[in-house]
Amino acid sequence: MDLGIAGCWALVCAASKGLGKGCAQALAREGVNLVITARGAEALEATAAELRAIHPAIEVRTVAGDITTPEGRAAALAACPRIDILINNAGGPPPGDFRDWDRETWIRALDANMLAPIELIKATVDAMAERGFGRVVNITSGAVKAPIDTLGLSNGARSGLTGFIAGLARQPRLAGRNVTINNLLPGAFDTDRLQSGFRNAAAKSGRPLDELTAIRREAIPAQRFGDAAEFGQCCAFLCSRHAGYLLGQNLLVDGGAYPGTF
Predict the structure, then answer these.
(1) β-strands 60-64, 85-88 pairing
(2) pLDDT by residue for the chain (262 residues), tens digit each?
(3) Are 19 and 41 in contact (CB under 8 A)?
(4) Measured between alpha carbons, how far apart are the two ends of the chain, in Å?
C-alpha cells in the first residue's frame, strides 16, 4: 500500500534506537524526509546512515540534544523546513515508590512525558492546518490503559498527556483541516530498555535472567515480545493519507496483553 506521504517532512524524537528508530525506519521506506533527535550523537549519526541507506532519495538531518528541554526542542524545530509529521517520543521515568518522589522528581517526569510533547504540538499543528495536512503520533505506554504500580511517574505523566490529547485532537480547526493526533501505546517490545529492566530485576531478585524473561513473554497472548520494526509500521499507517478519519485514539500495540474489552 502506498501511504501517500513521500516527500513529507517528519520530526521523530528519540529516534536513535528502540521504538523511535522503528518509526523513523518505516517512514524512510515511504520516502519521508526526516529530522531525528536523540541525546547521544554517535548512535544518532549511525541511525541516520542506516536511514539514508533505506531510501537514498530522502534527506535525513540529525539534531543531538535533549528534546525534553526548551533548547533541545528549539534546535529540533529549527532543523525542519516544515513539519508534516510529528512523532513525540521520550524515555519514561524510572520506577519506584511514590513516597520517595519529591516535587522535582514529578516535574521532571511531567516535563519529559507530558509537557514536552504538548510544546512540540503547539509549535507545529497550526501550520499543519494551514497546509491542510498533518499527523501527530505520541508514543505513550500500555500503562495508560493498565497502570503498573511501580511506574507511578509514567502513569501520571502519560495519562495527563492522554487526557489533553483527547480534547485537542477533536478541535474542528485541526480535525477539520486534516490534522490528526493519536497515541500509540506499546506493550513489551524487545528494546534496550526492556532488556535493561530484566537485567536489573534479575540482579535484585537473584533469579536467572532467562527465567524472568520467559515469565514475562509467556504472559503475553502472542507469546513473544514485539519488534520495533512492526511498531514502526503501525506508526507509519497512522501518519498516512489513509488515516485521516482516525483521530484522538489510543491504540494498543501489546500482543494482546491488555485483557479488557474496552
Answers:
(1) unpaired
(2) 899 999 999 999 999 999 999 999 999 999 999 999 999 999 999 999 999 999 999 999 999 999 999 999 999 999 999 999 999 999 889 889 999 999 999 999 999 999 999 999 999 999 999 999 999 999 999 999 999 888 999 999 999 999 999 999 999 999 999 999 999 999 999 998 888 888 988 888 899 999 989 999 999 999 999 999 999 999 999 999 999 999 999 999 999 999 998 8
(3) no
(4) 29
How buried is residue 167: exposed, middle or buried, by Cβ count under 10 Å (0-12/13-18/19+)?
Answer: exposed
Q: Which three cell numbers stand for residue 174?
A: 485541526
C-alpha cell recorded at residue 107: 516535574
Instruction: Tell me the β-bridge partners of 38.
Output: 64
Alpha carbons within 13 angstroms on the beta-carbon side of residue 88 total: 34
Record the cell numbers describing residue 145, joined without a space. Answer: 490503559
- CB neighbours (10 Å) of residue 19? 24
Report the DSSP pairing between strands 179-186 and 60-64: unpaired
Could you tell me how far CA 236 lies from the centroid of its own chain? 12
SS3 percent helix, strand, coil of the chain, rounded to 5, is 50, 15, 35
- Long-range contacts from 2-6, C-beta under 8 angstroms, 24+ separation: 3/30, 3/236, 3/237, 3/239, 3/240, 3/241, 3/242, 4/240, 4/241, 4/242, 5/30, 5/31, 5/32, 5/84, 5/85, 5/135, 5/236, 5/239, 5/240, 5/241, 6/30, 6/31, 6/32
Q: Which residues 6+ apart lie within 8 Å of 226 measured at CB? A: 186, 187, 188, 189, 190, 253, 254, 255
**Residue linked to cell 483521530:** 247
Q: Which three cell numbers stand for residue 248?
A: 484522538
Query: Is the alpha carbon torsion for 251, 256, 259, 262 positive or negative?
Result: positive
